[in-house]
Each structure stands twice: as C-alpha cells, then as structure tokens.
Design brief:
This protein has helices at 63-70, 79-92, 94-97, 135-153, and strands at 3-8, 11-16, 49-60, 108-115, 119-130, 161-171, 178-179. With 183 residues, it is of the alpha+beta class. The strands form 2 sheets. The chain has a 5-stranded antiparallel β-sheet, covered by helices on one side. It has a two-stranded antiparallel sheet with strand order 1-2. The longest helix is centred in the C-terminal third of the chain and has 19 residues, at 135-153.
Length: 183
C-alpha cells in the first residue's frame, strides 16, 4: 500500500493511495489516531524501566583533514571537544527536534570519537529510567556530533560526507534488548 501525506484541518493526516484516512486502530501505526491524524503515543500507563541506546556514525574526510584534526590545527579549534558537547546537548533536546518524540529526563549521555585513516567514527550512548526508550536521543546525539565535525572542518575540506548513522543496540522496555549483529 502506498502511503502519502495530506494536510487536513491544519494537521498532518496519513492517507492511503485513494486518499482514505488510515485509522489509529491499525497496530502498524501507533502514532496515528482514529481519524488518521498524527499523535504522540500515550506512555502514561507504562512502567519505568532502565533503558539505554547506543548509536554510531562516520564522518569521512581527506587524509589532510584527518591529520589536521589529529594535530588540532583546524581554524575553528577543538573539533571533537565541541562536537562532544553538541552531541550531548542534542540528546537532551531531541523532543524539540523530532515532532512525536517524548521529552525525557536523560540520566547519562556520552559521545566518543575514534580517528581512523579516512574517517572519524562517532559512538553515542544515552541512558534513562523511564517509560520510553532513548534510541532517538542516541541517534540525534550521533547525528549532531557528526554535523558539528562537518561544520568545523568544512573550511579545509568540502568533500566531507556523513555516513552510516545507525542504532547499534538498545536495552530495556517491553520489547527487550536488541543488538545489531554487524556493526
């Protein structure tokens, strides 16, 4: 079934290819109400559990830029230090960026970097004790850290690419633990 978006009553509404509203009674669409309008899932009756998520991504750049990054010779200063703080801040602000994401009290957030021959590898971990997971927070932390590396290195290298942003693992919650089999 082809799913498209239609604007109805100034609110996003999911419709099928014939324009008929998809209703919230369909288990496949938990973020859709009975009229087909986007909604935030009600997690009020869920138990608080310990939850964590780890994501990763890569920022590819030229050898010259990698070397300047390692020597901390880039014009904008401490690239990885600033990117770490940006990623942690992004984890805390995820619900302001992703429309149907719940605001969460983050207990822990870290962003770590490994400099490789042709890229910077980023790994972000977020933990909370709550009613919903922190996968989006970990992915947002990783993405914003990668964007910050890009921003701080772009004056030296216009060919930088951000690739392979993905969830590596999540723990806790009703669905249990999940681990990516190939990193």
């Amino acid at each position: 079934m082809l799913i498209s978006y239609a604007l109805l009553e100034a609110c996003l509404k999911l419709v099928d290819e014939e324009g008929d509203a998809l209703n919230g009674n369909n288990d496949e669409f938990s973020h859709v109400d009975e009229n087909g309008k986007a909604q935030m899932v009600d997690v009020g009756n869920k138990d608080d559990t310990e939850r964590s998520a780890t994501s990763s991504g890569k920022v590819f750049m030229s050898t010259e830029t990698i070397e300047a990054l390692e020597r901390q010779e880039l014009k904008k200063g401490d690239v990885l230090g600033v990117a770490r703080v940006a990623g942690i801040q992004a984890a805390k602000k995820t619900s302001e960026l992703i429309p149907l994401c719940h605001p969460l009290a983050i207990n822990f957030a870290s962003v770590d970097f490994r400099i490789r021959e042709s890229y910077v590898e980023i790994e972000a971990t977020v933990r909370t004790s709550g009613k919903t997971g922190v996968e989006m927070e970990a992915l947002t932390a990783c993405s914003v850290a990668a964007l910050t590396v890009y921003d701080m290195c772009k004056s030296m290298d216009k060919s930088i690419t951000i690739e392979e942003v993905k969830l590596l693992e999540k723990t806790g919650g009703k669905s249990g633990d999940w681990h990516r089999t190939q990193k």
